[in-house]
Give the backbone structure.
Amino acid sequence: MALPEGIEEALCRCGGIAGLMERLPGDEALERESALFRALADPLRLKILAMLAVQPLCVCVIKAVLGIADSKLSYHLSVLKKAGLITGEAQGNWIIYSLTDLGDTLWVRRIRAAKDREKE
């Protein structure tokens, strides 16, 4: 197959098609990343993350800010939990939600990126 100039040479340096394929993440890792991006792709979920970046919160506070039905909030919290971005800890009759280390790290990166874009 004919390749553009420079691509063939670079491809040979990494071991050809086989070498390229060996460097790709596994399907399981790609599925985890895909789930993470899907979780981050909704404005309501981003708003939940923003609130939890300020402080841990109970469902009633999150619901009051978002103004959405319990079932819809439950769904969004579930998506964020499955992606490993938030955790819920029972405190008596309450569940207090907070960012996980992953959620906190991603949020800090997002804020830094937004600040960098503002400087441009």
Remarks:
- Helices lie at 7-13, 16-22, 27-40, 43-54, 59-66, 70-82, 101-119.
- The longest strand covers residues 86-91.
